[in-house]
Design a protein that fits this description.
Strand content: 15-25%
Structural class: alpha/beta
Order of helices and strands: EHEHEHEHEHEEHEEEH
Largest sheet: 8 strands, parallel
Helix content: 25-40%
GO molecular function: phosphoribosylanthranilate isomerase activity
Number of domains: 1
Number of helices: 7
Radius of gyration: 16 Å
InterPro entries: Aldolase_TIM, PRAI_dom, RibuloseP-bd_barrel, TrpF_fam
EC number: 5.3.1.24
Distance between the termini: 16 Å
Catalytic activity: N-(5-phospho-beta-D-ribosyl)anthranilate = 1-(2-carboxyphenylamino)-1-deoxy-D-ribulose 5-phosphate
CATH topology: TIM Barrel
CATH class: Alpha Beta
CATH superfamily: Aldolase class I
Number of strands: 10
Shape: globular
Organism: Roseivivax jejudonensis
Bound molecules: the ligand O=C(O)c1ccccc1N[C@@H]1O[C@H](COP(=O)(O)O)[C@@H](O)[C@H]1O
Amino acid sequence: MSEVRVKICGLTREADVAAAAAAGAAYAGFVFFARSPRNVAPEVARDLALAAPPGLAKVGLMVDPADAALDAVLAAVPLDMVQLHGRETPERVAEIRARTGLPVMKAVGVAASDDLGAIAAQARVADQILIDAKAPAGAALPGGNGLAFDWRLIAGLRVAVPWMLAGGLTPGTVARAVAMTGARQVDVSSGVEAAPGLKDPERIAAFVRAARTAEAAPTL
Ligand SMILES: O=C(O)c1ccccc1N[C@@H]1O[C@H](COP(=O)(O)O)[C@@H](O)[C@H]1O
């Protein structure tokens, strides 16, 4: 079985990009969302993206972006994928995919079994699905809250496109999350930080190691 692929999200400094690459991450995420402590201006993200070595895919995270915001980010930053973390409908996901010409990963928040239908609906148009913990009502951020959900809800789930598990993962929990869900890709932000927006290279390395040593349970 191939190794679990890791995305380190919310990178704000060149040293964090270097740490993600050195640890063996497959994806580096940049957040374009003003309310986030990980928000980066497009010009900053451009420098970070240019500092990323080949093989590290650059993902731009946006929340319900207007076309003008999308265009501004895409014009400045050499991205490999767009991550949509808002309330984008499947129709809007398809539109953004066509507009940007990039693969789109659509985040779906999960708190209960009722939330699982959205995964199948979005998988009809998105290139990848990010299964994240649903943000609590009134949360300032739709993601990046360091909260996990009940992984049993998605144990054995089949998704029509590649998917990634996110939500409150840490170096100490990621192996169990992979074993319980069968995830072959995982995404982390808060769990590898020294402070909001500042990654810790040792935690990044420990996370990637732990994710890769995890044995996934077979899907049902
Ligand atoms: O990280 C952020 O600040 C953020 C802001 C707005 C939407 C999503 C955000 N992060 C994404 O949330 C998940 C889970 O993060 P965590 O590990 O629980 O902190 C992750 O996919 C980030 O890509």
